[in-house]
Amino acid sequence: MVLFGKSMKEEFPDIKEQGKNLAKFTVKVVKDVVINTGSDNEAGVFVSDAKKKERWDICKKCEHYSIRQKRCKQCGCWLEYKIKFNVSTCPIDKW
Predict the structure, then answer these.
(1) Cβ atoms of residues 83 and 62 within 8 Å
(2) CA 82 to CA 8: how far, in whole Å?
(3) Which residues share a beta bridge with 39?
(4) Max CA pair span of the chain
(5) pLDDT tens digits in sequence order for the chain, 95 residues long
(6) Sequence-ordered list of residues with C-beta below 8 angstroms from that of 6, at least 6 positions apart, any chain
(7) Is 80 helix (H, G, I), strand (E, B) or coil?
(8) Which long-range contacts (CB under 8 A, 24 or more apart) does 6-13 make?
(9) Is the pTM of this model over 0.90?
């Protein structure tokens, strides 16, 4: 579909790159869970609601944010899920 001379197709990393990004993220989350299970670490696996909101606000203002899909065009991640984890990072270091 074309709107005012612009294609509405959004560009994301190819499926292979998205798979690699998801695999790396999954390994980081599993390691974090294993390391923090039973420890006195206050951080835990998930970030606070305040940190989640802070990350979400940053993403929404970013030029790589897909409003339609709520995804990052740099890594392809679904941001409503990615922002929840302590080990998550922004691919362009905004958070």
Answers:
(1) no
(2) 24
(3) none
(4) 56
(5) 445 555 567 899 999 999 999 999 999 989 888 877 666 555 688 999 999 999 999 999 999 999 999 999 999 999 999 999 999 999 999 99
(6) none
(7) helix
(8) 10/66, 10/68, 10/69, 10/73, 11/73, 12/66, 12/71, 12/73, 12/76, 13/74, 13/75, 13/76
(9) no
